[in-house]
Amino acid sequence: MVASPGNFLAPIEALLARGVPVRAPAYGHRGTAGIEECLDELIGPLSVIVQQCGQIDIVGHSLGGLLGLKLAHRLGDGAVRTLVGLGTPWRGIPEPAGVPRAAAKMMHKPLGWTVGRSMVDLMCQELRALPPIPEGLKVVAVVSPGDTVVPPVSADPTLASRDQIEGYEPPAEPIIHVEGHEMRQVPEDLSPKDCRGVQVAYLDQPVPHAQLPTQAGAILTALGR
Question: Which ranges carry the AB hydrolase-1 domain (predicted)?
Fold first, then answer.
């Protein structure tokens, strides 16, 4: 969950080279503060940017993608054009299977000390409902098979329950090709109602969680840049 603006150097440089202005705010003690604290820090600066630009795109790594969705609600309809979540735990991070609830809760405090309050906020017994997607917002969830921090069960919002994990295969029809990556749209009849139309980008290379912000080609394609 720990992140900083410098992690996005490659896509920032690529966007600037295309004449696209970029803002990369630091927040929440590198993303380790509680979710509400992070949101409170971000809403003011982003509101100013929306007033200046009219509409923005958001690219968030890990917790940043979920914060982006919540911010899209706070900023109002039409304020955010595209949201790209890189290894984002859209429905929370499920506690280890087979571990008694009491034992799992005992893990929360040391997790808060080592990783941050946001990690504790995301832990859950069952995957949560996806926050509603504002009208007109394009959401792209980028999933890496090499992500052991936020695996597909959390990073793919179309996986609605643990029951869907067993034997799950990414959708076969690619919609975008970029630098060897495929971005696939989950068919609506297979997608939970709360994320109809969300684009799920499965990278065909096992990119580790911490390196997802460096995937400039995939990020720019998801943004339509």
Answer: 9-122
